[in-house]
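Troubleshooting log. The previous structure file for this entry was overwritten by mistake, so regenerating from the original sequence record. Sequence copied from the archived sheet and checked twice against the printout by T.R.
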Amino acid sequence: MKKAFQRCTTVAAALLLVGMTSHVWADHGSNNTETRLRTKLSGAAIQGKTPEGSADFRSDTRGRMRLDVEVENVNLPSGTMLQVAVTRGTATILTGNITLKAGGAGELELNSQDGDTVPMLQSGDMITVSNAGTAILAGVF
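Regenerated output below.
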């Protein structure tokens, strides 16, 4: 229990160091306006290897929404399933899974045009990648 608490505390401290790294921009060159939020994901070392990642959310006025979450350098066995959650305040508004490939990399891609459910995200939303309930990466849009 103490080790899990230390890992969660380390993830929270890493978030304070990284800070909010979101970017919002709009393309006014056409009849379509796109909103984009991005953040870096960071976490504590797992058996001497520090995981990292990123999350990218896009939405446009035509109703298309996409979310891409990438992780790498995760020192867990190939085939490990990680849980992805986006929270706003205390409410979880998105969950999904990433299955790690050899080398500790993986990706979650959601696209509303493919029939995926992608909720509208906003600045301040937190994204967390967990392994069996323990947060290993986190970031704030």
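Helices lie at 2-18. Archived copy saved in two places this time.
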